[in-house]
Amino acid sequence: MATYTPMIKQYLQVKADYQDAFLFFRLGDFYEMFFEDALKASQELEITLTSREGGGEERIPMCGVPYHSAPNYIEQLIAKGYKVAICEQTEDPKTAKGVVKREVVQLITPGTMMEGRGLTDKENNFIASVSIFPGDKYGFACSDLTTGESRATLLTGNIEELINELTMSGAKEVVIESSLSPEIEKKLKERSILALSIEDNTELNESFKELFSELEGSELRKTASRLFNYLFRTQKRSLDHLQKVSVYKVQQFMKIDYFSKRNLELTETIRSTAKKGTLLWLLDETMTAMGGRMLKQWINRPLIEQEDIRRRQGMVELFVGQFFERQELREKLKEVYDLERLAGRVAFGNLNPRDLMQLKRSLLQVPSLKHILQSLPLEEAARMSDRLDPCEEAADLLEQAIVDNPPMSVKEGNIIRDGYDEQLDQYRDASRNGKTWIAMLERQEREKTGIKSLKVGYNRIFGYYIEVTRANLHLLQEGQYERKQTLSNAERFITPELKEKEELILAAEEKSVELEYQLFTGIRETIKEYIPRLQGLAKALSELDVLLGFAELSEQRRYVRPSFSVHRKIVLKDGRHPVVEKVMNAQEYVPNDCSMDSEREVLLITGPNMSGKSTYMRQIALTAIMAQIGCFVPASEAVMPIFDQVFTRIGAADDLVSGQSTFMVEMLEAKNAITNATENSLILFDEIGRGTSTYDGMALAQAMIEYIHDKIGAKTLFSTHYHELTTLENELLKLKNVHVSAVEQNGKVVFLHKIREGAADKSYGIHVAQLAELPAELIERAAEILQILEQTDAQISTELHGQRSSGYGTPVKTEELQESQRLQIAETAAAAQLSFFDEDPMPKKESTISKKEKLVLDKLTGIEILDMTPLQAINVLYELQKKLRS
């Protein structure tokens, strides 16, 4: 430090407190970066890297961006997960003694962005904090700085519960304690968290004590305090818009884990984070940004309290029946801007005049909205009308004070209406009269001198002047004007009278602009007092917007109001997958029924690939979710139970980040469902076991079906290609076979997409390959092999599913196969597999085996596999494999 210049020393001192951020260091009209910041920023922002002398032996790397274009560069860095500390000059360079004082005025991070392209109108921008407490307790709190929303919950169980809650929130940044274990940090980073930040202060600050009035217990207070202490420390300004922390319990809502949310494509597709093709894309008929954000929150957290659901349904039903009122309400909402984020900008101090104009226009729509709601024949509509606070005083103030089309800048004037402030009107009168005098002077001087091109102009350096072209200088009398500036083709002059008027005009304009800024900030401070009322209005308008959207969609797409069964019944007539139906547009969508009750808990779904099994399963889950958020559903009749949780295992993809295979991901998701589901849950399992060998997969699939059937009792849809499992209908009382029908026409398969009772008679796999246009020779050979394997499989299937006792886990007793039968089956299967590659396989060679291998073979020979349950068989196989590998 001793060798550096004073300015570089100052930079390094400030940078020491912001090691994890780019330091934008204000030097004149630029924000400069030095050392490692400069090297990295020049690459990330693709700007020129230079260097400068800094007092040391080597030149210091340096890069910079103009202060007026800095927001664009900051957004680029934030989008990549970086943080930016803004260091401003805090004293006037003209009066500074030595190095100008500088300090960081704000830390901008992914979770604290307040404006810019990094924010999406219909998405929250949450920053979260997490805490880990003894006894497997986890604290979670999050806040959206742009809207002031804050919430918190205390979780119990394992760390995955916390990770899932964090992922569901979509938080861009997580505040953690410095002592958090590296393993948990790694888990957090794996879930698309842009930034991790450290905050160890969990003391309750008096300045936000009122925000914690709903918090109970030291765990939640510490977690929320960690978050708020970080926000106040980094933002260094008023955060009056932060709302009381809302405490919730995950049990108050239908639980949908992160993987199920992705599998069902609720808010993003499996292939990307795009909105198109999701349930959110289908349902979003909202007219406002805040309505769009509320809709996403509702989809992530469907209700489980029937009364709350019915209240929403009642409003939707009302709006469906009131077409003209619905359209009028939606037209009014078009004129409502984002009140939540406007309130945030008021508190944050970055509100501009156009924001105030948007606020005024929004408030002026409220009286009409209230009037329409009051005219509707439903008590709930009247209650919603009462929640719409028009904030008349604020609206009147803005109407009187702000011009209709104000500029963006707060320091260039033309913001305040004439007549609002007497002093401002006087300044404006002086300025306007002065300019009128200037125009008159120009006319007079043209007449007096006879120079038609004479003009009176103005610039910031010389002020007002009289300009005469060089060709007309001879027309002036000696001493008529005082020469001020010589140009290549003209001369500029002044007169004492002109300078006197200039002083009056400029003084009036300067004072006018300064006074307007003071008046604007005063108005902003007055509006700040309305923030709680504006936030309450925003919530009511958001809810109205979402419900109107549900009604619009329900009428357009012929959705019906679902009813709820206390007997856990599902009765869906002509059910459709809502998103697929929309994507297909005019094409004919084949509707399907679904019937489940206490005697029909598990549906085993068979049918060919591409026939619609997964679509059918997803549509049941989406119908349940739509019903529990209060929307109507795609069916002609719908009776649903209230589901507490939805679990899915649909689709398969390797988890490359954590190095887990397709099969391991499949097993982990299946385990999550089996260990957490209740009889009030909905489970969707699509082709479980396909990630491993045929008999392993079949054994696991059967074991899972039996366990869910006997131990859990959840409503379950289980699709499979293992046709051997269809015999379970004879053994499991509450399991029923259904299949997606298909027919052969002229040797080709035609999918009917219709769910029928009973098991599918064949899988049509080769026909699907034919549709994919695989070579004809390959298709013919596959058909030959299939015929051989089906004969073999029929014999094995008979033995595997001979009988099953009533209790889960009881060994299945079957008659032993004769040794000759076993050998015949094995030989046939071997011949079928070998013939695929070579019609004349090589003769077998004698092989020698080790003593260890002989022991394993002897033990394997003595085991009666058909007397075991599938899980018992897997355990024995695992032990034998361990011995061979040891």
- In oligomeric terms, what are we looking at? single chain
Give the name of the CATH superfamily of the largest domain: P-loop containing nucleotide triphosphate hydrolases
CATH class of the largest domain: Alpha Beta
Count the E strands. Answer: 27
Q: Helix coverage percent of residues?
A: 40-55%
Strand content is: 15-25%
The residue ranges in which pLDDT falls below 50 over 5 or more consecutive positions are 652-659, 803-846
CATH level-3 fold name of the largest domain = Rossmann fold
**Major sheet: arrangement of strands:** 13-23-24-25-21-26-27
What's the total helix number? Answer: 27
Supply the CATH architecture of the largest domain. Answer: 3-Layer(aba) Sandwich
Structural class: alpha/beta
Q: Estimate nothing, just give the exact number of structural domains.
A: 7
Shape: elongated
Largest sheet: 7 strands, mixed
Average residue-wise pLDDT = 86
